[in-house]
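Researcher: Here's a chain I'd like modeled. Treat it as a single chain, no partners, no ligands.
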Amino acid sequence: MADVITCPSGLQGRVRGMKVREERVLADRKLAKNGGQVDELLAACWEATIDPGPYALAEGAVLDLGKVLQGDRFFALLMVRALTYGPEYAFGVSCRNDNCRARIDWEVDLTKLPVRKLSEESRVAFVGGNRFETTLPDAGKKVAFKLLTGDDERKLPALQRSAPDKLLSAVLAYRVVDGPFRFVSAGLGCVTLVALAFGMFGADTAAFEELGDGGVERWIAYPTVLWMLAFGGYLMAQGADARSKWSPS
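Model: Modeled as a single isolated chain. Structure tokens:
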């Protein structure tokens, strides 16, 4: 069964429900790890593009799902699910009251969920380069950001696994530590960043197949752990002056 849907951005197309092949995609652990499940499902179930909306699409060309906004992709997935198993979605939640904790059963119609359309202002900004600006309420700083697309969504699993908040520490330490250790810091940091980039973009290479997900993750994690141990030793060897330099004021 197929149906015509209109996504929040105005993208309009014809989608169908899942078949056995697509259901197998949901059980593919490799695709789950590299974030490719959504792309595989949408590519199979998106039959035709009727109106490309804000996306550039030459006549006769196939829609590049990696350029499609995350909100559109999620909406399309909901509609595929509704076409496959029916619009009713039943689930249960537990009461947050510690003295209750009773299970409450709910059921919603996926085709009747409220959908917030992409505003004309946001549409213009997206078409013009996907650059948005806002001012942080507490810091008062003006920042730029973008709306997530399918390409961004596919990178998230690797970023979450590799703890990106620590990846740059070793490289940045090159600027503040003294002596030979600064080169050790830069080296370990570069190894980690290169391994992360390889894990994100090299999934289709022979080297990735040889190392496997676990091998690539070790190349990301182990240099970071080694740097943390080495940096702790560096601070102890430098004495109180170095430790105070790295302590919160």
